[in-house]
Amino acid sequence: ATLAPVSGTLAAVAPFGPHQGYTYVDDRTAEMWQGTRVAPAFFRTLGTPPLLGRAVDERDVEGDAAPVVVLSHALWQRVFGGDPAVVGRAVQLNGTRRTVIGVM
Fold first, then answer.
1. Which of 31, 36, 65, 68 has its CA 20 to 30 A from that of 6?
2. % of the chain beyond a pLDDT of 90
């Protein structure tokens, strides 16, 4: 098969890290979550606004920024029962306390 060249220009790019596992622990369970570190422009570049809360932005990557996490819709439904109060909640991932800032 021959692939046709793609013409045009990129409007934006946003780096993201490799897919990796995170161990989630709460007072009842421990389970493995899959996730990816993303740059502040990642969700903007995709044009995908969060369902709840906010996406990662520049304040989240400053040197003294507290660790944050954005949940997928499926994970939010399965683990947190679709509770909108999850935004602002602290979760333990790989032994680090992170604040849930949004649900995509």
1. 36
2. 53
